[in-house]
Amino acid sequence: MLLYVLGPVLYLSEIEKVKIFLKKSDFVFDLVGKSGKVSHTWVAEWNTSGIYVMLMLTGEYEHTLDDKNRLFVSNKLRSQIDAEEHGSNFYLVMGANGILCLYPEKYFKEIVLVGAPGMAAPDEAVAFERLSFALASKVELDRQGRLLLGEKLRKRVKLTGNLTLVGVRDHIELWNSQDWEKYLSDNLSQYQAQVMQARQAVLQRQSREMDL
Fold first, then answer.
1. In contact, 63 and 72? CB cutoff 8 Å
2. Among the listed ranges 24-38, 79-93, 127-141, which one has the minimum average pLDDT value?
3. 8, 122, 153, 154: least buried by Cβ within 10 Å?
4. Residue 111 pLDDT > 90, yes or no?
5. Is residue 55 pLDDT above 60, yes or no?
């Protein structure tokens, strides 16, 4: 395996699991196949054992529930999840704004075991713990990469038959396609402004580093 370093970005010549132990802060790097095309992007973060590869799920994928209420999870999403690194199973949980979320096993455990951050009141901490476990379901995908969605759960989050799966860093969100398009329409202008601000911040930081 070859490793190419271009500024803060690391490029690899093959697509495979990678662990890098460098005493740096954070890295963002792309997995690049032999064709030279970027497969997908990972973020490496520093912990006590060194640099480890962090999950970064991206993209939007439209799918339809079949007559048995099974949802196909795109291989383009599944291929970004390393079973050994992130767990082979998933947890289906209620996320922010009532959006149904699919978390790789290890990420879900990290979230719920942290507890209720910033909640001093005991009743709030109890509610966080109770709902975190009560509203979560451990699920497995079948051989075709399909996920069974129960009728009670679908009604609770008001899912229809036409869904869009959205990669959001460490989890997959399940949206009604119509709701997702409206969300994009309502938030796209703000997002574009945020991207420009973030890019300017990166350029300013790079400029300062070059002056050192």
1. yes
2. 24-38
3. 122
4. no
5. yes
* DSSP alpha helix (H) spans, 56-176: 75-78, 83-86, 105-114, 122-134, 151-157
Q: Domains of the chain: which residue ranges? A: 1-54, 60-183
Exposure letters 78-91 (e unless 16+ CB within 10 A, then b): eebbbeebbbeebb
d(CA 77, CA 61): 9
DSSP tag of 57: B
Q: 0.90 cut: is pTM over it?
A: no
Angle of helix 105-114 relative to helix 122-134, nearest 10 degrees, comes to 160
Residue type, 141: L
- SS3 assignment, position 169: strand
- CATH for 60-183 is 3.40.1550.20
